[in-house]
Amino acid sequence: MTPAIDEEKAAMGQTKPVEAWLRGSLVTTAWLAGHIALPGLCVLDATIVKEPLGDLRYLRRPAAREFETDGHIPGARFADLAGEFSDARAALPFTCPGEEQLAAVARTHGIGHETFVVVYDSLDGIWAARLWWVLRAFGHERVAVLDGGLRKWLSEERPVERGPSALSNSAGSAWRPVRNSRSFVDREYVLGMLKGRREGLLCNALRRPVFSGAEQAYARPGRIPGSLPAPYDELIDRTTNALLPVEVLRERLAHLLVQGERVVTYCGGGVTAAGIALALTVCGADDIAIYDDSLNEWAADPALPLIVD
């Protein structure tokens, strides 16, 4: 066992380890390695991969195949973020699911009211953040993202398993998801913000060339008027794949951490926006919403305004 794990365990004490830890929305790889067999722990891999189709087209699909063949954190289950944890009936991908769907999926994965969920992905953390946000939005507060994800886990030469998902543990008392109406907003809410009828700072989580309109990633280039930039790719330590230290995050997100202001974050489809929601939460913000359909919806409607520099 590494010294880092020993130090964390000593700080936590020997009773109620999850409650003793539960201070934020991130767990370290050292913490997870030291508590991988903790009763009531559910580890989920939410990775989505980008598969080229030719002619600059691509498909985003759940990385279930890679989970089994390339390896995953021991005891983890694969979470199909595009299917299980999104509304398949919706016109746009990665739309948040309904309460009944989420309750059924939670039972499948053994997520009960008391279950502590740790989510990770094998990329830069946005997919894990999206699943973290969905669970929190429906009232499951006992959920955290593995800081640095599988990349950091592998870089530290920690063990992996291959093969299908682990069997789900007993969920204990059932979790009944109830959607928080303030966690997601729609196009009408954002239009209300533009007209001064709705509260909040509007934040674009995409890379700066997409924000400015120099690079077109959706039906039309540009950003929603009044948007503030907060590129998620500038909040990641490229050496460790973890979020930057909280003091650096607070500096880079200072324009959004305005006392009393709500933050509404968006991207292409509500996924990278969840990464910003995670970073803001780590910084202490607590009034955050995601425009779920984001530019997938907004840019497709020529009647809705976009700004290009």
From the structure above, extract its key features.
Oxidized Rhodanese, domain 1; 12 helices; 15% strand; five-stranded parallel beta sheet; 309 residues
Brief digest:
Helices cover 30% and strands 15% of the residues. With 309 residues, the protein is of the alpha/beta class.
Describe this structure in words.
- With 309 residues, this protein is an alpha/beta fold.
- Helices cover 30% and strands 15% of the residues.
- It has a 5-stranded parallel β-sheet. A 5-stranded parallel β-sheet has the order 8-12-11-9-10. A two-stranded antiparallel sheet has the order 3-4.
- Helix 6 (126-137) crosses helix 11.
- Residues 1-17 and 19-23 have low confidence and may be disordered.
Helix content: 25-40%
In angstroms, what separates the terminal alpha carbons? 53 Å
The first-level CATH class of the largest domain is given as: Alpha Beta
Work out the radius of gyration.
Answer: 19 Å
Oligomeric state of the chains in view = single chain
Report the structural category: alpha/beta
Overall geometry: globular
The strand line-up of the biggest sheet is: 1-7-6-2-5
Specify the number of helices: 12
How many domains make up the 3D coordinates? Answer: 2
Mean pLDDT reading: 91
In the predicted model, the low-confidence regions spanning at least 5 consecutive residues are: 1-17, 19-23
CATH arch. level architecture of the largest domain: 3-Layer(aba) Sandwich
Series of secondary-structure elements, N-terminal to C-terminal = HHEHEEEHEHEHEHEHEHEHEHEH
Major sheet characteristics: 5 strands, parallel
CATH superfamily of the largest domain: Rhodanese-like domain
Strand tally is 12
CATH topology of the largest domain: Oxidized Rhodanese, domain 1
Strand content: 15-25%
